[in-house]
Amino acid sequence: MNSYQSGTLFIVATPVGNLSDMVPRAVETLQSVSVIACEDTRHSKKLLEHFNIDTPCISYHDHTDQKATEKIINRLSNGKSVALISDAGTPLISDPGYRLVAEARKRKLEVIPIPGACAAISALSVSGLATDKFRFIGFLPSKSSQRTKVLETLKSASDTLIFYEAPHRVLAMLEDVSIVLGPHRIAFLAREISKTFETYLHGSLESLCVEVGNDSNQQRGEIVLIVSGNGIIKESLSIEAKRILKLLMKELPIAKASSLTAKITGNEKQELYQLALRLQKK
Ligand code: SAM
User: Fold this and answer.
1) Whose CA is closest to 209, among 184, 234, 232?
2) Quick check: 128 and 202 in contact, CB under 8 A?
3) Residue 264 contacts by C-beta under 8 Å, 6 or more apart in sequence?
4) 120 Cβ inside 6 Å of ligand 1
5) Ligand 1 mean position to 223 CA, how many Å?
6) Does 121 sit in the ligand 1 pocket, CB within 6 Å?
7) What is the CA(232)–ligand 1 centre distance, in A?
8) Position in ligand 1 atom list of the atom nearest CA 17
């Protein structure tokens, strides 16, 4: 194991479901520090017991207890190392820890990550959607009207979008995403990653809404939703739209062929008509 100076803050990732995904370095670190700061001490007890870690635990939240940050910083400044864990996955990723790490950096304390599971990255890695540019959105607002407002701001984003959602809101959220970003966008729904009932759905947002709506099992458990960026959908739709338009143009006048293609693909009629004119000239 690497040796770090005393008074180091370790940000330790824990599994998102399957305890076998705990990395040995995480176990060693949690055994070696003076105290483990947990999002929920009762929740983390099971994990710590499983790995025979008997380091004392304290509870840590960014917002509920600001004094907790100060206490941990003092401990670090006195040369005692501390580890931060959340209920699952990588701390700070839609989990507590930002205030603590920012404060530690300000005080020039050493902060070291112990990498491991993260639901967003695990889901992205098997989504089949573009991974060169992606944007982590995390949780959308729980109210549909506010959710819609946030989604409106993401409509033209060309990077792949990653959302988290609580189980009881999956369908409502999927429907809003489909309405605002467009039913034909390709998306990926990763449910219960690494757990017994893990499932992965791939298809248009419209088809995911139908699949999830028809299967109550899909509305249970933890999910990550990944949605392709705007540029990608335009490109893939235009290939499909072009194919349909070309076929219909063989049988129908171009105005009729364009309006029928618009109805089938959801593309703009005017855009298709312009394309039909260009194709006609070829
Ligand atoms: N820090 C965690 C991480 O690194 O992924 C995320 C914590 S956030 C409070 C919890 C959300 O992460 C869930 O609502 C869900 O969207 C996602 N998530 C966590 N575990 C998951 C799993 N096993 N399968 C799918 N999504 C999961």
Assistant:
1) 184
2) yes
3) 244
4) yes
5) 7
6) no
7) 26
8) 23
| Cβ neighbours, 10 Å, residue 96 | 24
Task: Return the pLDDT at 30.
Answer: 98
Helix, strand, or coil here: 184?
coil
Tokens of 208: 């995911």
The strand ranges marked E within the chain are 9-12, 35-38, 57-59, 82-85, 111-114, 134-139, 160-165, 186-191, 199-204, 223-227
Are 170 and 219 in contact by the 8 Å Cβ rule? The answer is: yes
Higher pLDDT, 35 or 64: 35
Question: Closest Cα to residue 156, out of 237, 234, 78?
Answer: 234
Per-residue b/e over 220-253, b at no fewer than 16 CB within 10 Å?
A: ebbbbbbbbbbebbbeebbeebbebbeebbeeee
Output the pLDDT for position 141: 97
Burial track 16-35 (b if 16+ CB lie within 10 A, e otherwise): bbeeebbbebbbebbeebbb
The two structure tokens encoding residue 152: 């409106």
- Return the number of other C-beta atoms located less than 10 Å from residue 218's C-beta: 21
172 by DSSP, 3-state: which? helix
Taking the centre of ligand 1 as the mean of its atom positions, its distance from the CA of residue 88, in whole angstroms, is 7
Burial of 178 (0-12, 13-18, 19+ CB in 10 A): buried
Tell me the CA–centroid distance for residue 257 and ligand 1, in Å: 46
Q: Using a 6 Å cutoff on CB, does residue 162 contact ligand 1? A: no
Q: State yes or no: pLDDT of 39 exceeds 70.
A: yes
pTM reported for the whole predicted model: 0.83
44/245 Cα distance (integer angstroms): 57
DSSP codes of every residue in 205-227: HHHHHHHHHH-GGGGSS-EEEEE
